[in-house]
Amino acid sequence: MQRIKMTISYDGTAFNGYQVQPNGRTVQEELQRALKQMHKGKLIHVTGSGRTDARVHALGQVIHFDTPLSIPLDKWVRALNAQLPADVRVLRAEAVPEDFHARYHVVRKTYHYRVNNRDASDVFRRNYAVHEARELNIGDMRRAAAHLIGEHDFTSFCSAKTDVKDKVRTIYRIDIEKENDELIFTFEGSGFLYNMVRILMGTFLEVGRGDRQADELPSILEAQDRSRAGKTAPPHGLYLWEVSYS
Fold first, then answer.
1. For substrate, which residues are the binding ones (predicted)?
2. Integer Cα distance of 113 and 95 in angstroms
3. For residue 234, pLDDT beyond 90
4. pTM confidence score
5. How many domains does the chain have?
6. Torsions phi, psi of 45, nearest 5?
7. Is 172 a known ligand-binding residue?
């Protein structure tokens, strides 16, 4: 047996999330179906670096699995992509030690969130960027983001549905850049709670519209109360961009 680490990308539009579930198509399910074909009917369990919600995309999701097959690493990418649907692609394959874990050994994650900021929505980007017709104040959103850099308890920015007890996380950077009519938000941190990036985005959008002040962010953090933060932003603007390991 050898452990294989893969970096994959997927278009989340037609998926009900990453993790296998009773109802709806998932990325993990497609990966395991393809591997089952390659292993002549044997179920190969795939472990991901984390879950993504329905309609969330990924350019750098990381998975691992154990296999008895002796396929050269450069052939794994081509072989698995031949079995996968077009909205999931394997980008890289590596052999890793048997104790490597795609989820537990993560030291840093990077997400992007894209906002199409113009009067009329773009029909060709409707599944890949969230449309916002009102002009957004980038300076105010950057000032709001600055309050979140460092280690904090992010209870206020976490879904109440989570069962995670420790909600302390470290955010290393939040960048907000404009490319033509699109705003690209980059979040880099030690890890992110359930819906954390989308709740942060919902709050930033309220700041950008002028519905909330940038200097409210410290009191929202301190409150440790989900109701104090903004609405959860839609999923289709979110991308799992990169997962880093020590």
1. 111
2. 31
3. yes
4. 0.96
5. 2
6. -80, 135
7. no
